[in-house]
Structure formats: C-alpha cells, structure tokens
Amino acid sequence: MTTQDRPVVCISYLASAELWSVPKFPAVNHGAEIRATEMSIAADGPMVAAVLAALEVPTLLVANDFGSDEAGRRVGHWLQQHGVGATAVASTDYATRRVVVVSDGDHTRTWFAYLPGVADALERVDLSSIATASFVYLDAYQLIEAAAIRVIRTVRAHGQRLFVNLGGIPLSDALRHELAGYSNLLIQTNIDDDDHVEAPSVARRLLEWTCADWVIVTTGRYGALAASHSQLLTTSAVPVEVRHTHCAGAAFSGGLLYGLHAGMPMRRSLMLASASGALRCVRDQSAPLPSLHDLESLVTLLARPASN
C-alpha cells in the first residue's frame, strides 16, 4: 500500500452546529435580531475529513458518538452527504452535542458549546486506525487536551505524520512536553486579522518549542504563512465576497493536507489551502464542498499576471 492509498485519520469531537447571523452584537443586557440561521457541523476535524473526501482522499473521522435525536439525524445526514467515513455512530442513549456560532456583519464570531461528556468519550475512542494512516489530523483544543495527548502518544509509537491544529490557543506545557523531540510534525494555528504582523514571531516560537517540520499560521484576510527552520513561505488571502467564515480554517487545513498527502511541495499545498479556505467562505452550508478542479482553477486564476 502506497502512502496515497492510506487514509488521513482526522480526530476531533463531533457536534451539531447552528449558525446565527446578526447585524451587530448587542450591548450587555440588550438583544439583537437574528437575520439568518443555517445548520452545519463542529468541530474542525469533521470538516477537514469532508474536504478531503470531496478531493477523493481516503479519510476516516475518529470522534465521539452522536444521538438519534433530531440534531443527531442532521449530523448523520451530513456525514453521509459528504462521504465521510466515521467511527462515530448514532446511539439512543446519547444526546447529540451542540455548538451555536453567532457572527455579525463584520464576520466576527462568538460561539457557545454544549459538550458534556465529549472529552471523556474521546479518551476512550479506538485509535487502531492510526497504525495505517498516511497522516493524522488532530484538533488539540484545551477542552479535549487529555484525549489529544493520548493520540499524540499513539502517533509517536507508530511514527506517523501528525498535523496538530491548535485553533488559536497557546501551546500548553502539557502538549509541548508530549510533542518534544518529534519532527514528523506540522502545527497549524491562527491569529486575529488585526494581529497579522505577529504571525512570523508566532511561527518562530512554535518552531523553537517543538521539532516541527513546519508551522502554519493563518491570519484571515491577510493570508497565511508556513515556516520551517530554513524557509518562510507566504500566501495571500484569495479576494472573495465573504458569506461566512464557519470552518474556513478547517477547509484551509483540508486543502493543505490534500497537497501534502499527494506529495506536493509546501508552497503549492499552501496555495491550494488558501483556495480551499476562500471557497468555503463563499458557499452556503448546503453547497457541495470544492472539487480539485475548483481549487486548481482558482489557483491558476490567481497566478495569472494582471493585464494593463
């Protein structure tokens, strides 16, 4: 079995996501009109798996189970619709966990997560699929840090390539300890648009604290960078009319992993990632995820020299 025949294993929590759009966040003790609602998925790992499935990469989502309630039926339909194979199953004894994401007219987001028992469930999931993975994608959020540490130890035991998504949180001492000395590693994080000038220093610190091959930092409308111990690569954000930003970072990760899984150099993979993140922002939640043709067409269009 070649590397490209082996699956990318994505490990994260699984929940139903409800997206609310308001014109402006209200002041304390005041309200706001909800202009639109959409249903989607959380967290990033399920969306990464769906992006990869749309790009015809063998993928497996390892996550907590969900319920057989209405929210759970939506989750199950979403997984089936996007061709995501998952260890998670519907259970009559389990209520589907939920996340509400509220965004305003400036695409600033605030989210509220109802995830009781998820951390414990993830600490018990079967990790045997890691042994045959080409890549392991891991959401290393603080909420599920204990489960993430278990995954890291398993990945290290098998020597697999590990892609750790910090989701904008600092690298904790516990994660830093577990990742120490492991070079078969990529780390992705994000910072706010207004802090984009700090991206190189964020990448340098993560490189100093770990032996990662690459650190990738996304900065919203200011694009992204990828830094190794010898290179610093940047890509501009694709200029699009942003409809929403839910899971844009996950779509970016999926595009990046597609390129790396296919053996492409980091610069090309970074461009595909930027295109994937941008197309996620312009399509509604029920639209198909981008195909490889969609991504390559956008990259080609951006690479054309401007005409006078």
TrEMBL record:
SUPFAM superfamilies hit by this protein: Ribokinase-like
Kinase recorded as keyword: yes
Residue span, Carbohydrate kinase PfkB domain: 64-282
Organism superkingdom: Bacteria
Coiled coil: none
InterPro entries membership: PfkB_dom, Ribokinase-like
Protein name: Carbohydrate kinase family protein
Organism expressing this protein natively: Nocardia panacis
Keyword Kinase set for record: yes
Keywords: Kinase, Transferase
GO molecular function, one term: kinase activity
